[in-house]
Amino acid sequence: MKRTFLISCLIGGLAFMFPSFAVSNSDKLLDEYTMPAGYSEIAQNIAYALIEKNKGVLIDVRSPEEFAEGHIEGAINIPVETIKDGHILKEAPDLNKPLLLYCRTGRRATIAGQYLVNAGYKYVVNFGGVSTWQYGLIQDNN
């Protein structure tokens, strides 16, 4: 029994000292998540895990002014007004790579998502908006 306890402590200590030995919360979430084909809406913790693991193209569909005021790090700003129904985005030409969409509340991302599914994108997810995003935003310094 002492031997098992010591081994458990050693393994736990290694996971703490060397995080690559530990499974992250994002890994666990993504192990349990299957992205459906077409358009879908997902929880923000799933979106955060996908972003953290670079599992898609992150697109902010708000205006450039809104984007500059604060956006998710790594996001590309493509305003919904510039997304045409059925057209491929030059910033995301691979139709099989997931698109992770957001705006302020999720309404504009829904519109953009439908246009992008009509264009042939296989995986388009909307995770709402920055108004409820709890993982931090960055601002452009202009």
UniProtKB/TrEMBL annotation:
UniProt KW keywords: Signal
SMART domains (UniProt xref): RHOD
InterPro entries: GlpE_sulfurtransferase, Rhodanese-like_dom, Rhodanese-like_dom_sf
Keyword Metal-binding: no
Segments forming domain Rhodanese: 52-135
Superkingdom field: Bacteria
Pfam family, one: Rhodanese
Signal peptide segment: 1-22
Gene3D superfamilies: Rhodanese-like domain
PANTHER family: FAD-DEPENDENT OXIDOREDUCTASE, PYRIDINE NUCLEOTIDE-DISULPHIDE OXIDOREDUCTASE
Name of this protein: Rhodanese-like protein
Species per Swiss-Prot/TrEMBL record: Succinatimonas hippei (strain DSM 22608 / JCM 16073 / KCTC 15190 / YIT 12066)
Species classification: Bacteria, Pseudomonadati, Pseudomonadota, Gammaproteobacteria, Aeromonadales
